[in-house]
Amino acid sequence: MGRIERRFAELKQKGRAALVTFVTAGDPDYETSLKIIKGLPKAGADIIEFGMPFTDPMADGPAIQAAGLRALHGGQTLKKTLKLVKEFRAGDKETPVVLMGYYNPIYVHGVEKFLGEAKAAGVDGLIVVDLPPEEDVELCLPAIAADINFIRLATPTTDDRRAPAVFRNTSGFVYYVSVLGITGTKAPDLKSVEKNVNRLRKHTKLPIVVGFGVKTATQARAIAKSADGVVVGSALVSAIEDSLAKVGKPSPKTVKAVHSLVSDIARGVRS
Amino acid sequence: MTTAQVNSYRTGPDEKGLFGIYGGRFVAETLMPLILELEQAYKDAKADPSFQAELDSFLEHYVGRPSPLYFAERLTEHLGGAKIYFKRDELNHTGAHKINNVMGQILLARRMGKKRIIAETGAGQHGVATATACARFGLECIVYMGSVDIERQKPNVFRMKLLGAEVVPALSGSRTLKDALNEALRDWVANVEDTFYCIGTVAGPHPYPEMVRDFQSVIGVETKRQMLAREGRLPDSLVAAIGGGSNAMGLFHPFLDDKDVEIIGVEAAGLGLRTKKHAASITGGKPGILHGNRTYLLMDDDGQITEGHSISAGLDYPGIGPEHSWLHDMKRVQYVAATDKEALAAFQLCCKLEGIIPALEPSHALAHVMKVAPTKPKDHLMVMNMCGRGDKDIFTVADILGVKL
Ligand SMILES: Cc1ncc(COP(=O)(O)O)c(C=O)c1O
């Protein structure tokens, strides 16, 4: 059993949903980013999603675009992202880590090389936005062979006809994108989220987590009623941005700003 | 990479949208159902003679096709070698080849019942063509344009607005064409129900590279017919400038299986290939994934896309259509590059000798013609795609020449 599966099994026993937190690796710099993720489990994160910065993130809104650029300007690379995971993993053997990003940096690094290094660093899952099931031979099948979960995005446009193809080669959990659009812009319509989560359950036994646009403890609590987990990303990334001393430079408040927001939302998910 | 003989260079892409290893459908799940719907709609339209008839009629009466194949006599004399012809696509309505593709896509959007059209633009020519067709059919039109390009292509921005389009500045990344494409994709993800994305070049996810190529192929089909009528034989060589590669693919594709026709694509070498300031994806890049397809791209060692640079906003794109990448690997088409300086010299020469103010994009093709034409015999027939007129560029050129307008 992998860490992701184990974590969802534990939470099922506790009878509550998972809080999945997203921050961009290397935002605003390597050291601050490491402090942020090291403190996330204690603040209430059950699963950590770590964004691999990319110059052209076509599914991301302004907040995560800016986070990626801050990280890149700070010298973040795919190699350094793997190093961050390794340093985190040295102190935490249990919390699942999922890398999220776009295919080009992985492709250029070399798929097999990347998978080997990711596994060794302690990465549990991958979400690669621009690899739909039509491109499974690229990375999805090799990842499964390397014993890394390949987590798929399902969206409001994933209808019942398409769902079986989307879920065929997926594992770990399913990430339901709650809005038609990019990250951090629209707020999810709770009724439609519940309806779609229930619809997708007919196609998969995997846990379904919901993300894109969840910003507050209240929203998180409402979504946690029907879903197995809630992802919070843009709100955390915006908290980083708001806390900066100046562009790209952390202030003494940066790490704490993220952790206190995570604690706040965790209380919502757990209540 | 295989360079084994293929029976035909004109059968691609395969059913997965691949030309060799290039192309494909690297898009977010939200877009996947739409792309499959578009693929089906395009297949149906292609098989429907009434669609082609409607398109042909608009190309003739609205766009002004066929465009002439013109013997550039004074340039030929000046260079003293090959007999040079211009395919005059700059005479089309709106002043560039872009409208050929736009008419096809807008008629398809109408067939699909889509009422809201989005597009990206670099030089503004594709944006103007899209705004034009949308005005003609009463469709809502939103054009994404990098804020840097808005600054250097002001006349086209105003044109689009006159035509009723909304021009939205792309403020992310390098604020040029690639970022405009990102913004258009983001818009599409958020507005899947009613929106048709009209891509301006032979890039993007399948079926765009194939579809745009098909619509632009009218250039090569006409050239073939016109050259046979004029000279009684096929040309010996074809030369075209490459941004994303649509005018080039449109000229090249009908000739790909004519083995004796030498085919040359000219990328933008900017300040020089040895500087980082160029936009030559094939000559100076390597394969990667961006904007829905695998193709040659400009990037750093970490796989981060780098900014292109060219004097011409229309060539300033860090990628190239996937079919070009394949034709390069197969060695069917030769890819070369021309610098800003060479293009500018070609621009000026063309104005003086032929009375044609070319766009800065085809000026790159012309720069290569100036290099190779003198080395060819007098009976060598060379066709250059004059894919746009230069009115939009006079401010850029005046600026560089130190002239205040
Ligand atoms: C006149 C002209 N030529 C060429 C291009 C480059 O595009 P493509 O390579 O797709 O023909 C542009 C793009 O804006 C253009 O306006």
Task: Tell me what the structure shows.
The complex is a heterodimer of chains A (about 270) and B (about 400). With about 270 residues, chain A is α/β, with parallel strands linked by helices. Helix content of chain A is about 50%, strand content about 15%. Chain B has helices spanning about 30-45, 50-65, 75-80, 100-110, 125-135, 145-150, 155-160, 175-190, 210-215, 220-230, 245-250, 280-285, 320-330, 340-355, 360-370, 395-400, and strands at about 20, 20-25, 70, 85, 115-120, 140-145, 165-170, 195, 235-240, 260-270, 285-290, 290-295, 335-340, 380-385. In chain B, strands 3-4-14-9-10-13 form a six-stranded mixed sheet, with helices on both faces. In chain B, strands 1-2-12-11 form a four-stranded antiparallel sheet. A four-stranded parallel sheet of chain B has the order 7-6-5-8, with helices on both faces. In chain B, helix 5 links the parallel strand 5 and strand 6. The chains are: A alpha/beta (about 270), B alpha/beta (about 400). The interface of A and B includes residues 103 and 159 of A. The structure holds pyridoxal-5'-phosphate.
Please name the defining characteristics of this protein.
heterodimer, A: 271 residues, alpha/beta, nine-stranded parallel beta sheet, 12 helices, 14% strand, B: 405 residues, six-stranded mixed beta sheet, four-stranded antiparallel beta sheet, 16 helices, 14 strands, 42% helix, 18% strand, binds pyridoxal-5'-phosphate
Quick recap:
With 271 residues, chain A is α/β, with parallel strands linked by helices. Chain A is 48% helix and 14% strand.
Task: Record the SSE blueprint.
The complex is a heterodimer of chains A (271) and B (405).
Chain A: H1 3-14, E1 18-24, H2 30-43, E2 47-51, H3 62-73, H4 78-91, E3 97-101, H5 103-109, H6 111-121, E4 125-128, H7 140-145, E5 149-150, E6 152-154, H8 163-168, E7 174-177, H9 190-201, E8 208-211, H10 217-226, E9 229-232, H11 234-243, H12 254-270
Parallel strand pairs in A: 1-2, 1-9, 2-3, 3-4, 4-5, 6-7, 7-8, 8-9
Helix pairs in contact in A: 2-4, 2-12, 4-6, 9-10, 10-12, 11-12
Chain B: E1 18-19, E2 22-26, H1 32-46, H2 49-63, E3 69-71, H3 73-79, E4 83-87, H4 98-111, E5 116-121, H5 125-137, E6 140-146, H6 147-152, H7 154-162, E7 166-170, H8 177-190, E8 195-197, H9 208-216, H10 218-231, E9 237-241, H11 246-252, E10 262-270, H12 281-284, E11 286-290, E12 292-297, H13 322-329, E13 334-339, H14 340-354, H15 360-372, E14 381-385, H16 394-400
The structure holds pyridoxal-5'-phosphate.
